[in-house]
């Protein structure tokens, strides 16, 4: 796994074998998301639209957006609302604005209740229109804003005075009266044209008449992130972190997985590989206690990164592999020989393979030919944490049987050193793997050999075989 590309089949295998742990972590993430939603109360957001009449360039609209969220506008809105404990600085974090199509500024307000959100948006929009009208005339002074209106009133009063003078000049029976009336009409026309040009030149005439397009709608739902979104996000985050953690741990796993790597770690030669029919309990370590029960409940007591066992042949085909290993042991030393079969403690797959190997050695096809008989094997289980191998007695060597990918190179080296300390030479290594068993078929082997192999498990911890 450390050098292989992570494939979908790997993720699928992890989901099948770790679904309980992943489900529990997802529930924990959902609870964390729920707790986060409790710490952060729900928020409601609504928007009020302000129409800007006339022609506006894009940069001018952006300027109006900045004005709508400025402290000058928001502070006035905060003072008008008078919410206890809420200052203008806090409201600035809850107010936003953006320019929409059609010269429209959308002002959004966020509050802890729908009513407050609606009032906030409406009040900021109204303050924005008032403030924009003030600065459109070139001054923020209210008296300066009303100067243009006062001038228009003066012009209207002058027009009325001209009308009165024209009526007093008479109906135009004399030359002087006609000339006076003509001069007064010219003066009236000149004033009207001057006011028209003044209105056209005044930006406040065209761009100060902003309109609030109705009150903001009262929000009916929470603003994101909602409580449901936080719960789902928490569950998904914890699930993804668990998946990534599993893949990262498998990626950095440096346990030998191939036969040459295992043989090199033990400093010996590979005698062969054998198959063991897969059983679920074969992957589970023995032991009790609360921690072991919790591990079994979560499904973390078995390796998830072990590939799914492939289908094997029948019992006769598997027996051929054991027979070949025994033949290689016999060829190494033609004379009678006793060997110690060393199995790492907790490796149930290797233990079953060693029991089958011991049974195969007992069923020597030529027991009368002592020079060509299989070696006599005795199985012992050795802890890899503090490996202690029985001292040399009648055995003249050690045969290590283990499963691939279960032990680190340091643990295997310690196992080899323990054999050397006990005076045993590691004559070879046998790697055991699980397969999916098929129905047995009739072969030239006696059918009671399977019973014999299982009976050997009674000597798993030692004893002459």
From TrEMBL:
GO CC term, one of those recorded: plasma membrane
Matches recorded under Pfam families: Wzz
InterPro entries reported in the protein's UniProt record: Bact_polysacc_biosynth/exp, LPS_length_determ_N
Organism (species): Streptomyces iranensis
Residues annotated as domain Polysaccharide chain length determinant N-terminal: 4-67
Topological category with respect to the lipid bilayer: Multi-pass membrane protein
Family statement: Belongs to the CpsC/CapA family.
Coiled coil: 148-201
Alphabetically ordered keywords of this record: Cell membrane, Coiled coil, Membrane, Transmembrane, Transmembrane helix
Name of the protein described by the UniProt record: Polysaccharide chain length determinant N-terminal domain-containing protein
Subcellular location: Cell membrane
